[in-house]
Write the structure tokens for this entry.
Amino acid sequence: MTAPQSVAAQDSKRMLPDGWRWVRLGEVCEMRKGHTPREEWYAESGCRLVRFRDLKDGCVDWTAGFRSFVSPQYARFLKPLTARNTLVTSDAHDPASIGKKIAYVEVMPETLGAVYYSGEMIAVRPSDESLIEPRWPFLWLSPYFARLSRLLP
């Protein structure tokens, strides 16, 4: 087995603007897997929980559905969702769904209060916004971008 090439070696044919360099996503972003609530944590109201089914067309569908809330007493065990995060599926009931759904969270609805995301997803956000624009992980990880990038030289 051969060692993986560096990012620069893989993409050396692509030109970058002066002052830029090739990096791996993990060098400029934090990636945090969510947490799936236990059965007894779900509630009719309380803290909003974003789940796999809520990722639609690159956005979060904030419409509450079945098991959309957890009791506030269990929120400390969950991962908070904040603005300027990209959510991507990392785990699902069907392995074919992994990485297929993605959403960018531009702003958080003020009416919801605290919002969390389930263990079916990873939240990706820049570790330093001076190094990377927050929407870039969404574009890079998006299946739409992957299809488009095949058309580029």
